[in-house]
Amino acid sequence: MTALDGAGLDRGAPRLDGSRRASPPPSLARVSWRPALLGTAAIWVVVRLVLTVYSLVVTSTSTAVPVQPAVPHSFFTLLYHWDSSYFLEIAHNGYFAAADPPDLQAFLPGYPLAGRLATLVLFPGQGPTVPHLLVGLWLAAAIPSFVAGVGLWRITEDRFGPRVAAGAVVLLLAGPYSVFLAASYSESLFLAFAVFAWYHALRGRWWAAGLLAAGASLTRIDGVFLAVALGVVVLQEHGRLTRRAVLRAVGVVALSLSTLVGYFVYLAAVTGDPLSWLTAERHGWHRRFTVPWVSGLETLRTALDPARSSPLRAQALLEVVFAILCLAGLVVLARRRRWGAVILVGSTLASLMTSTTYLSLSRESLLLFPLTMTVASYRDHPSRRWVFRAGLAASILLLFFNTHQFVLGLWTQ
Predict the structure, then answer these.
(1) Which pLDDT tens digit goes with each residue over 140-149?
(2) Alpha carbons 165 and 153: distance in angstroms, whole number
(3) Any bridge partners for residue 313, and if so which?
(4) Angle made by CA atoms 217, 219, 225, in degrees to the nearest 5
């Protein structure tokens, strides 16, 4: 197999960054999907089984009083908390059914639409009821989490081999905040679109990459960062900064963002506010632009404030820790000249670290799959295997902690 550079592209002819590029070798196209499918399935089943049993144990033995969601209790509400209720409301009634909608437009429609579609397929001929939608939303998160694992396995396997690929999938599905891949949240669907957009981009299938990225952009605002990163991958693959390369990159970015632009146009038409999404973020989550050091100090102040609740303080501290770790990972990606990954990770971090606080930064690390691959790459490193082992151990411990908090309805980022 031809060696791949840090962006997952082949060396050969001259490139923009001075490395070499060649056409993708036929061996890449002939690699069997069987190991990725079976390996991911095994990891997915084990992690889901452990999380389910652990969640049941927590709810039945905890001395804390769990926060009960205002929906019928069932298996599908075991991990139904916080933003899950917003997604259910959108899937059930749309954005503006209530007289005073609670800034629902901050949540993009991709995941609620997928949940509603799954419900209509499972329960045809019936109006979507809340119990049915809970099943649909659960499936719209569960299935994409498996799909994302398969895609990550293939990308990592092409670059580092099957052992590292298995390690990357374990880090993804059993990561510190992977409870959000099991909950009724949009992370799974976004990752499935994003990982396979990346997979196709690395093989020069720009239309497929753009269409999949359009799905990601309809699911989470992070699709903006993915779109720009894919544009960089297009330029790297082309090798030279020609007019054709630039037009192709612009086309991929435009296609990737088309669904998001359509959603913003819809919001502007309904609300009369062309910045309706940003308004909802400011009103509902108090997000405003702040320089990174002020935002970091505010987050650290929250972590050290004894007047705040223990769960809030713990998560604020984790936000700071994850910011440092992600920045360190960004440096590694830059040293490896993985420019598409640098753009994806760097722009995501920049947006989160210039908000009022580092709100949700640690959870957002779940979406930064190039960092997951980077940690996994140390699994076979001759002298730095400890990086992978330490990362895996910390991930599993934090997964249990965050799952405990989330199941009880305590603050979990």
Answers:
(1) 999 999 999 9
(2) 5
(3) none
(4) 35
